[in-house]
Amino acid sequence: MPANPAPAPFPAVAPAQTAPTDAAPWTPASFVADRQSEFSFQVGTRLGDNCPPSAAQVASNGGQFLGRTGTISTPHGEIQTPAFIAVGTKATVKAVLPEAVADLGAQAVLANAYHLYLQPGADILDEAGGLGAFMNWSGPTFTDSGGFQVMSLGSGFKKVIDMNTVTAAGAPGPDDAVAPGKERLAHIDDDGVWFKSHLNGDRHRFSPEISMQVQHQIGADIMFAFDELTTLQNSRRYQEESLERTRLWALRCLEEHFRLTSSRAGKPYQALFGVIQGAQYEDLRRKACRDLGAMPFDGFGIGGALEKENLGTIVRWCNEELPEDKPRHLLGISEPDDIFTAIENGADTFDCVSPTRVARNSAFYTPQGRFNLSGAKYKRDFGPLQDGCDCYACTNYSRAYIHHLFKAKEMLSATLISIHNERFVVKMVDDARLAIEDGTFFDFKAETLGQYYP
What's the CA dihedral at 177, 182, 188, 192 to 10 degrees? Predict the structure, then answer.
């Protein structure tokens, strides 16, 4: 099949037009260092200082609590952290107007570089003035690198990759295996990835340079370096190879980021986060953090394979190594217990599609847990989705009405439940931030999770 052409090459840097006038040698890196002042992170209150944990809590956590509040400053506004970042995969939070996303309290939106590259094309967003202008969102924006989707959709994670358990650490795993009757759609080499579109099967190429070009055209305030996604089923040997590949890709991403930032001097500065891999291995996670932490990234994303029971431990390993003065984003969580675990171990921001995804199947969050509105008991329930909730759905509509919409297959049901679910998670994280500041975090965590998981 024909390969989709890479984004049009950006113009070469013209030092005479952009270089500083002093006698110091000009380089793209030095120019970007000056531009980086347009993005900043300020640590606020440290959890361990304001809510001193007991020795038993520290022992149970496996180490000191690294949570903190902070402020991320971007060209399109500030993000008070910890913060939940609403996912707008294709430049839209599914079923929710951008104005409603702002009203429910979301501080920023994360879009997907892979999906926007395929449709409508990164050049369209660039011509429109960037992601925020394109989708009518005035606040800060994120884009991921596309690496997760290239592998999860291209390789068919849990559908194409053979998920048999690796027999022992270091033993050959199913690194190249696929499930019976399936086809692997993504193929990695040291230069990048060939993959087939999940939309129409067209063949495409992503490399660190192409990912940077795509993300610069999309124009988000924060973007992520291109990395390789592995799974917990990959062998230790492959994890080591992949980690080195991701390290080298990180260097290439920085070089291309410097070049593009310099050649697009009239654009707002875009921060670049390195992505930490290493699966379940402590030494690999720490190595990745030391390697990338020494590079001039603006922040870091903690990604890759994470077992739920080890989430806090892995986040703590990473944040014990990463620079404290740079923000850390944990990719892809939204369950309340995971959120509290991430916050107390030092994650500043995180994202997940779950609030809107489960809403489309009529599931809604409450302090007492998650429930499914399709049940017959809601047919004559004229109360709100959640008593006391201040979201648009709860202040204007009843469970009975939204139950009717879902049964009638009306799209408005997904809109109303999505608004509520996003508000629920955003407010829970906002309240956790306030609890760190007023010294009640551990009490708030115990009360919240005690209700949600009775």
Answer: -170
pLDDT digits (tens, 9 = 90+) for 50-107: 999 999 999 999 999 999 999 999 999 999 999 999 999 999 999 999 999 999 999 9
Q: What is the phi/psi pair of residue 35, to 5°?
A: -70, -25
For the cut 80, the answer to whether the pLDDT of residue 226 exceeds it is yes
Backbone torsions φ then ψ of 256, nearest 5 degrees: -70, -35
DSSP collapsed to 3 states, the chain: CCECCCCCCCCCCCHHHHCCCCCCCCCHHHHHHHHHHHCEEEEEEEHHHHCCCCHHHHHHHCCCCCCEEEEEEECCEEEEECEEEEECCCCCCCCCCHHHHHHCCCCCEEEEHHHHHHCCCHHHHHHHCCHHHHHCCCCCEEEECCHHHHHHHHCCCCCCECCCCCCCCCCCCCCCCECCCCCCCEEEECCEEEEECCCCCCEEEECHHHHHHHHHHHCCCEEECCCCCCCCCCCHHHHHHHHHHHHHHHHHHHHHHHHHHHHCCCCCCCEEEEEECCCCCHHHHHHHHHHHHCCCCCEEEECCCCCHHHHHHHHHHHHHHCCCCCCEEEECCCCHHHHHHHHHCCCCEEEECHHHHHHCCCEEEECCEEEECCCHHHCCCCCCCCCCCCCHHHHHCCHHHHHHHHHCCCCHHHHHHHHHHHHHHHHHHHHHHHHHHHCCHHHHHHHHHHHHCC
144 is catalytic: yes
pLDDT computed for residue 31 by the predictor? 61
**Choice among 126, 144, 298, 348 that is catalytic:** 144
Q: Of how many residues is the chain composed?
A: 454
Q: Which residues contact residue 434 at a Cβ distance below 8 angstroms, ignoring those fewer than 6 apart? A: none
Residue of 22, 176, 351, 387 with catalytic role: 351
Whose CA is closest to 351, among 222, 219, 159, 206?
A: 222
Residue 151's pLDDT band (cuts 50, 70, 90): low
The predicted structure's pLDDT at residue 198? 76
State which amino acid sits at residue 391: C
Across the beta sheet with 186-189, the strand order is 186-189, 192-196, 203-206
pLDDT tens, 115-130?
999 999 999 999 999 9
Look up 431 and say whether it is catalytic.
Answer: no
CB proximity list for 253: less than 8 A, separation 6 or greater = 145, 208, 209, 211, 212, 225, 226, 272, 274
Q: Residue 164: its pLDDT value, please?
A: 46
